[in-house]
Amino acid sequence: MVRTKTFILGAIALVALSLLSEPGYSLERRKKKHAKDTTEVSKPDAYGDLVKKAKITEGMVKILTIENDYYFEVADSLMGRDLLIVNKVSGVPYELNDAGLNRGMESNDKLVRFYKDKSMNKVWVTTYNGKVSVPEGDAISESVKANYRESVIEYFPIEAYGKDSTSVVIKVNKIFDGSEKSFNDIYNEISLGGSVKKDLSKILGVKVFPKNVVVKALMTTQVVDGGVAVPLTVETTTNLVLLPKVPMKPRFADPRVGFFATEHIYFTDEQQQVEKREFVHRWRLEPKPEDIEKYKRGEVVEPVKPIVFYIDPSTPKQWREEIKAGVRDWQAAFEAAGFKNAVVAKDAPEGDEDFDIDDIRYSVITYAASQQANAMGPSVVDPRSGEIIEADVVWWHNVMSLLHTWMRVQTAPIDPRARANKLSDEHMASAIRFVSSHEVGHTFGLKHNMGASHAFPVDSLRSPSFTAKMGGTASSIMDYARFNYVAQPGDGVKEITPKIGTYDKFAINWAYRWLDTETPQEELPILNEWIQEHEGDPMYWYGEQQDPKDPIDPRSQDEDLGDDIVKANRYGIMNLKRIVPNIVAWTEEDGESFAEAGKLLMAVINQWKMYAGHVTANVGGIYINNPVKGSPEDRYIPVPKEIQKESVKYLIEEVFIVPEWLFGAEVWKKSYPIQMGVEYSPYTVARELQYATFYNLLKDERLLRMFDSEATLGRAKSYTPEEMFADIHNVIFASSKAGRNLSIYERMTQKNFIDAIIVSSNRAVEKTTKKALHHSNTCCFASKAPEFTIEPREEVQLRTLHFSSMGRVSEAVSVKRGELLKVLKLAENKRNTGNVETRNHYEDLIIRIKEALNMR
Fold first, then answer.
1. Which of 229, 481, 550, 591 could bridge to 473 as Cys pair (CB 3.0-4.6 Å)?
2. Residues 298-317: pLDDT tens digits?
3. How many CB atoms lie within 10 A of CB 574?
4. Does 377 reside within a domain?
5. Per the structure, how many domains does the chain have?
6. CB count, 10 Å around CB of 131?
7. pTM of the model
8. What is the span of the domain harbouring residue 806?
9. Residue 4 and residue 2: Cα distance in Å, rounded?
10. Rounded-to-integer distance, Cα 438 and Cα 444, Å
């Protein structure tokens, strides 16, 4: 019985899909013999009856409003046309605001088509994936149609036929009031789940324009949190957008230039394998017909349609001009692509009832009243071509708290303006401008270029002339190169804020320069030539964003500066040492607690740990390039041995030997470091952050990359795990070998080192012993620290590199066991030496190691 039911449901789906074999297929072609099974067609006077009662608004469709019911009159010319559903959040309750959902955020985009089925008196709505192309007439086209069919997501009974039967009227309440999820499934899209309570939801209003419909609605649901039922009502705006009949000519992505892209598949009869491409996300910028010849001669001309951003009226007035300036800063980049006045920023029009920041016709920098400290720059894209048709920067009010922290901890030693608990509006505005430029860069299609900071020599960041000439901290504002923490007092450096750079201008030209070609394939040799003109120049290098927890290429990291991260971070440490003694003086206020001192102390600690993470990436790191035919560089280049060795030396000196300048500072007497209302003691902070660094350094994936380098280059040219363990061992066990009493921080360091080896080895070693290694329940302090980011990280990293296969028989197991046995022998020899604390410590090490190696 169950099998029969499944077969019937599948058959129904196949019948529905069989009616949609190609775009523009008319569902009325079904044989008339099935007419007796269909619903009754509308009465001849039904249209006239509706029109008499309705308020009518004309546009892409006619909107017929009768009290609380909404009808679309859809012309036959719209049937089979590509439409894009774009859902936006327009209002949220406290509970969702606190979770990071705010006005201006998109919840879903969906490509749909409407089809009229006269025989069944219905309009069907289908969705499809626009990622597949095939030439008409190729034999394989029939197979493509069969294997990439449209799916039915909704239907509407036809309420009436328009004049001359060239249009139909359908009632659309159910797709907007929460009855159906086909067009707007807000709660599942934000991963909250649950159904909309229809009786507590409603349509607020519908507007129509020549190429889009805008529908606002309230969607209410209820969730249970901690046993308490919590009502939630979200205001949504659904845009139904008419896409052009002929999509914009796409431009193929290239891994050497960082742009968001949409995957696409080409099928042809001539192929011997499927052609897979990616379409760059970009706005449609084209010279006016009368200016094409000027443009071809290299003159700068105005585009047919510029990119216009409106400033949310909710934006505080003191920030508006700097936000607009951040947008306009991109003018120079678009001029490099041959377009002037291509980017416009303006205030929202006053008194225009049709203006709505959630209307797809307007790109808006939306200001969100929220405790979230963030900003982001998403865009709406035509999936058929990669054309950006609208963009919204979401600007959370509390992002200024991040800017304040960055400027304070990274620039206070050289800029007295950054030292106060509250910055001047002028100083904050300069940082707001940089964030505006960064986020707007995303709306042009640009991805993060985390390799841009590597383009600047470290010592050049201390040069007033270099920084004045180049501007900022990197060759691209799309890096996370916040502020210049390398420059030292007395250097005279003034340009310390990120700016639009050389790479940005190159990338915009590469993606946006108009080419008079028929197909994107014709553009490929031209685009490749533009890239190769700058091959080997670090100012034009694109370093893709990686997983910040395990970056493989140390040149492409978040928050770093310069081409020598060890040197840069030593300068950074020098500046942190200048901040710590001044924390109380810079933060204290009459009658106030020392909470601000605790926050600044935590910012210093987070910066110190971030430096350690940057340097760790050198160890077992691989420079990953994107060579093409004729490129002199190799794809994979292990980080040179001397750089890896110097990096471990840095970690020993700045982390494994607990820094007295930080953890013994006077400020701890006034306040512990404070983060999110929690105060952390010095021993706890030092122990947990040091442990996190040990664990990161010693994990198997890193060691396996080091062994891979040895297998490729030979032992003499490689920094091996055995050498690294020896370098660390010789320092942290020096007092033990000398028979001295161990300080609490020395005991802590030895325990952290051993435990990191044991825990990081657990999965590998458990398969070669009778029981698993002992796993301590260690909490990592670093997980509590906020990730300093301006937007949600891209869900991408460099091409997946696989090193961890068959870890249980890798050399990583051997080197870690060898180190444990070495420490065990030392502890057994010294177990009766030193004071009671030291002797207890050795006994503890002996027990830990023997349990781990199943020797008890």
1. 481
2. 999 999 999 999 999 999 99
3. 14
4. no
5. 2
6. 16
7. 0.90
8. 564-856
9. 5
10. 10
